[in-house]
Structure formats: C-alpha cells, structure tokens
C-alpha cells in the first residue's frame, strides 16, 4: 500500500523552503485501528507527510531528476493530536548539510496555527527515475500545485 500524504503544495522558495497541506479524512484507512472509536492520525504518518514534502522539494529543485529518501530522524516532537477533518499546514526548510548528496531538513506541521509536530531529519538524494516514473511525477506535481509556477 502506498500513502500519498501531501494533498497540495502551496509555496516553494528555491533553495530555502516548501509548504503544503495534508487534509485528514475520516475515510483514511490508518484511522480505523488508530484508535477504534477515537481516530487519531498516527504521528509517524505526520512525519512521513513532512518527508514526502521534502521529496517534492528536491524533485522540483532538480528538474525532476532527484528525490529525497530519509535515513535518520534527528529530532521529533509532538504537541497534540491530529483528528479527522483537520487540515495540517506543512512547512519544510532546508538546513545546512554535510555534503551535496546528503540533506538535512527542519519541518513543522500545524493545525489552525497550533503546532502539532516539529522535526529535523536527514537523508540522501537518489535518482528519481530509479524509484518513480518521472513524467508521472511531473503530472502529479502539476495537480498538487494547481498548475502554479513557482
């Protein structure tokens, strides 16, 4: 099963940051057992949404030749629950990294202006064509950005 956890990309500042949105729907299958009769978006899924946004940042920044794969979570803090019906504002910023193919990101997820997650993670860049169809990803990006040019 594959989860696409970024529903829209709202901002992109080359070399600096990217922002997007994750809408949490009651129909998301991961809510069925987390927890029965008290659905809460799992924290790891929030973290994954931030990592996926970093992947989109690298794809666009590289002309769709690279993708980010996380290898280590350096810091991660949770500040409250994300519930069905919430819209999570996602922000990912580039931090200083030890090398060209190693990246570090700082990220925040908020609901209604209240922080729900803050994380710092690192990983490497891989060729996008090794894990995805490049043209399919370009098309998906156009859908996520509603055709806006960043």
Please provide a written account of the structure.
By secondary structure, this protein is α+β, with helices and mostly antiparallel strands. It has a single domain, classed as Thiol Ester Dehydrase, Chain A (Roll), CATH 3.10.129. It has 2 helices and 6 strands; from the N terminus they run ββαββββα. It has helices at residues 43-61, 134-145, and strands at 8-13, 17-23, 66-78, 87-99, 102-111, 114-127. Strands 1-2-4-5-6-3 form a 6-stranded antiparallel beta sheet. The model has no long low-confidence stretch (mean pLDDT 94).
CATH architecture: Roll
CATH H-level superfamily: Hotdog Thioesterase
Number of discrete helical segments: 2
Bin the helical content. Answer: 10-25%
Structural class, by secondary structure, is: alpha+beta
- H-E order: EEHEEEEH
Short note summarizing the structure:
With 150 residues, this protein is α+β, with helices and mostly antiparallel strands.
